[in-house]
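Budget justification aside, the reviewers requested a transparent look at the raw inputs and outputs of the sequence design task funded under Objective 1. We therefore reproduce one unedited record. The lines immediately below are the structure tokens for a 84-residue chain.
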């Protein structure tokens, strides 16, 4: 048995993004009228502008961006018949 224990943790780089997108959509749908200003308030309240905060390397930003686009595409392709 090794004297040193090495634990490798697998972390999904975009963990929580889909949940945040769900919350963004939910809050937007709660409004009687959604305009750009209201959308921006929700966006800021959920701190979406911090999505790349702490990402120090170009490779990490590229990997995260790729995952964010993949997740975002799932929302664009969803059945939206129940949306107004």
């Amino acid at each position: 048995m090794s004297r040193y224990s090495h634990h490798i943790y697998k972390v999904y780089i975009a963990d929580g993004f889909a949940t945040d997108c769900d919350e963004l959509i939910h809050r937007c749908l709660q409004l009687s009228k959604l305009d750009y200003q209201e959308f921006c308030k929700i966006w800021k309240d959920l701190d979406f502008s911090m999505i790349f905060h702490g990402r120090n390397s170009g490779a990490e930003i590229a990997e995260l961006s790729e995952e964010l686009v993949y997740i975002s595409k799932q929302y664009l392709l969803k059945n939206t018949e129940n949306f107004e």
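Residues 7 and 41 are 41 Å apart (CA to CA). The helical segments are 17-30, 36-45, 58-77. Computational costs for records of this kind are itemized in the attached budget.
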